[in-house]
Design a protein that fits this description.
With 372 residues, this protein is of the alpha/beta class. Among the domains are: 76 residues, Periplasmic binding protein-like II (D-Maltodextrin-Binding Protein, domain 2); 88 residues, ACT domain (Alpha-Beta Plaits). It contains twelve helices and 15 strands. Strands 1, 2, 3, 4, 5 and 11 form a six-stranded mixed β-sheet that branches. The mean pLDDT is 90.
Length: 372
C-alpha cells in the first residue's frame, strides 16, 4: 500500500463495537423495566397494608408459581426454561424484599443441599437460617420466628426421609410448596490437603452411599467417615492434611475448598425433593399437588380400601409411603401425594370417600407443583 493510501474506514472490530452498543442499550431497558417492576411491587404492598387485614401476606406461593410458568411459556430461547425461571425468581425475590424479606429456616448447617434448595425456591434475597435438626425447622415455623421452613422429604436413590414424615404427624403446619434439586456430589480438598495421601473421606452417610461405586474405583482404601451433613464434612477437612470431603458446590464456595473431581455420584439422575412448610393454606395455582396422611388398621384389603376411591374418581397418585403408627399396635400410617388441589371437585369426592374408610385423615396441604 502506497503512503498516500488510506486504510479502510470499516475495521474488523466495528461489528463487535456495534453489538456491544446494542447490548448496552438493551441493558439500560432491562434496568428500567426491573425498576418499574419493583415500584409496582411496592405499590402492591401499600394496597395490601391499606386493606385493613390484621395480617398482611406478601408472599403468595400460587402467584409465584404462575409467574414462573408464564415466563417459561413465553421463553423462545436461546436460554433454557430453567435458566429463565431462575432469572425471574431472583427478580421476584429482590422485589419481595422491598415489601418484607422472607425468613426461611432450613436443615443446616450453611452450605447444605437444603440451603441450596431454599435459595432455588425463594431466591437470594431471602434470609435463610440454618437449623441443626428437622425438628427445629418445624419448631421455628410453628413459633413464628420464620415465615417458612425447607426440609428434605425423599431422594431418588435413597428413598424417603422418614424423620420429615414423622414430624408431620404431630404438627399443624401445612405444605406450601415443593422444590426438586439435582444432586451433584464433588470430591473436594482444602489448601492443606496432600492429594496424593488421602486416607479419609468425610460426608453424610447418604452421600457416601450415593458415591459408593466411584469411591470403590478411585479410593478403595480410604476410610469413609459419615458426619451429620456434607457442610460439616467440608468444614472438617480445613485442618486435616490427609482428608477430603464429598459435598455440593455451595459448600466448596462457602468454605474455600478446591473441587478435585466433579459429579462423582453413581446415578446421573440423582435428585432430592424438598418440601416448603408454612402456616397457611395455599389457593389453587392451576397445576397443584396435595399431600395427606391416613391411619388404617392392619387388616386384609386395607390398602385397597384406602386407594380405591382415588382410582374411581380418577385422581392420579404420585407417591404412597407407609409407616408404623406410634399411637397403637397394628396400625399403619400412609403418606399419599396426588395431583390436584383440595378445591378440585374430583379431589373432594375422593377424600370424602377415603375419610369414611380410615380411622384418621389429615390433609397436609395443597400446593403448586414444583417449577423445574
Amino acid at each position: 500500500m502506497s503512503t498516500d493510501e488510506k486504510p479502510s474506514d470499516k475495521t474488523p472490530l466495528e461489528p463487535l463495537v456495534a453489538l456491544r452498543n446494542r447490548i448496552d442499550s438493551i441493558d439500560a431497558q432491562i434496568g428500567e423495566l426491573i425498576s418499574e417492576r419493583a415500584r409496582c411491587a411496592q405499590s402492591v404492598a401499600e394496597v395490601k397494608k391499606a386493606s385493613g387485614e390484621p395480617q398482611v401476606t406478601y408472599y403468595r406461593p400460587e402467584r409465584e408459581a404462575q409467574v414462573l410458568r408464564k415466563a417459561m411459556e413465553r421463553n423462545t430461547g436461546p436460554l433454557g426454561d430453567e435458566e429463565m425461571a431462575r432469572l425471574f425468581r431472583e427478580i421476584m425475590s429482590a422485589c419481595l424484599a422491598l415489601e418484607e424479606p422472607i425468613k426461611v429456616a432450613f436443615l443446616g448447617p450453611e452450605g447444605t443441599f437444603t440451603q441450596q434448595a431454599s435459595l432455588k425456591h425463594f431466591g437470594s434475597s431471602a434470609v435463610t437460617r440454618p437449623m441443626s435438626v428437622i425438628d427445629e425447622v418445624f419448631r421455628e415455623v410453628e413459633a413464628g420466628a420464620v415465615n417458612y421452613g425447607v426440609v428434605p422429604v425423599e431422594n431418588s436413590t435413597e428413598g424417603v426421609v422418614t424423620h420429615t414424615l414423622d414430624n408431620f404427624i404431630g404438627s399443624n403446619l401445612k405444605i406450601c410448596g415443593e422444590v426438586e434439586l439435582r444432586i451433584h456430589h464433588h470430591l473436594m480438598v482444602s489448601d492443606v490437603t496432600h492429594t496424593e495421601a488421602i486416607t479419609r473421606i468425610y460426608s453424610h452417610s447418604q452421600s457416601l452411599a450415593q458415591c459408593r461405586k466411584w469411591l470403590d474405583a478411585h479410593y478403595p482404601k480410604a476410610e469413609r467417615i459419615a458426619v451429620n451433613s456434607n457442610a460439616e464434612a467440608a468444614k472438617r477437612i480445613k485442618g486435616e492434611w490427609n482428608a477430603a470431603a464429598i459435598a455440593g458446590e455451595m459448600a466448596a464456595q462457602l468454605y474455600g475448598l478446591k473441587i478435585l473431581s466433579e459429579k462423582i455420584e453413581d446415578e446421573p439422575d440423582n435428585s432430592t425433593r424438598f418440601l416448603i412448610i408454612g402456616t397457611e393454606q395455599v389457593p389453587p395455582s392451576g397445576e397443584d399437588k396435595t399431600s395427606i396422611v391416613a391411619s388404617v388398621k392392619n387388616s386384609p384389603g386395607a390398602l385397597h380400601e384406602l386407594l380405591e376411591p382415588f382410582q374411581r374418581h380418577k385422581v392420579d397418585l404420585t407417591r404412597v409411603e407407609t409407616r408404623p403408627s406410634r399411637s397403637g399396635a397394628w396400625t399403619y400410617v400412609f403418606f399419599i401425594d396426588f395431583k390436584g388441589h383440595i378445591e378440585n371437585e374430583r379431589v373432594k369426592l375422593a377424600l370424602a370417600d377415603v375419610a369414611e374408610r380410615v380411622s384418621d385423615l389429615k390433609i397436609l396441604g395443597s400446593y403448586p407443583k414444583g417449577v423445574l
